[in-house]
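Hi everyone,

Forwarding the result from last night's run.
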Amino acid sequence: MQEVLNLIGYDIGGTKIGIGIGNSNGEIYAKARIENKDTKPETVLPQMVTTTLDLLNKANLAIKDIKAFGISSPSPADIPNGIMIAPPNNPYWRDVHIKEFLQNALGIEGFFENDANCGMLAEGFFGAGRGSRDAVYLTMSTGIGGGIVANGRLVHGKGFLAGEIGHAVLDPGGPKCNCGLTGCYEAFCGGRALAQRMQRELADWPDHPIIRFAGGKLEDIDLVALEKAVRINDEYAVKLWDEMCLRNAQAFGILLNTLNPEKIILGTLAWAAGDLFMEPVRRYLPRFAWKECIEACELVPSALKREIGSYAGLAGALNALYERGRYQLPW
């Protein structure tokens, strides 16, 4: 039987950093979160080390018991060298050599990976994609990121940019995307883009249900407020939701006909809204993908849901060991 590996995982977010101690079976021994809103790396990086050592103590482990650590990082980043280049939600983090810092501080091997890829790996090792050799994971939250596994291997692409389905152009006459392109999938369906659209369109409609569900504040409109308005059958909300589901189906169709995966695993929106989202998307899919590709693929919500961040860094480390022939998949 293969040795169970103990690992450390770091999940770098715009407002929080998750740190977890766990193993290759998906057991989490101890975890913690560090505030990361408007921080500076020279303050936070040493805090990551001290928190890690505290968690090891709680888990009754020493650093010598840990095989490796993994970092799940937002883009843009230098994946091979473990450098956070310019995370959009962390304005003071520029060209941060985070992997090197942690390797030197902890004295163990470390690995670095894009956060959407780590989401795919987490679902692949521990969640809805377990056992799947051809799968796609989509983040489906503020933005839309993607991770792809093909024939059992994570797809990086030449410049480590593979999986950016959120920036596939669905309509060149569509809305401007924050990435600079026009008509991106994310510009139609990303949480931030939809919130910005609703804020523009409802600015002169202060008593609209969506605004009421956002606590009466136009600036607080989000997908949760939209979903609640759809559930009371508000005409504007239903129309926007339907359009959003259609565009999601269009993007899924691209993935289905291009990659022919056995699973597409969907993040936050899918498991939070459930059938309100999944049913119309499945209904629209035949307009955008071949019947054979649809029948070969399971379209499923994330199994790890809110806890995916606890597994992301662990999965990144485990995959790096697998790719180097130092860990064998149990399936």
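The longest helix spans residues 235-259.

Cheers,
N.
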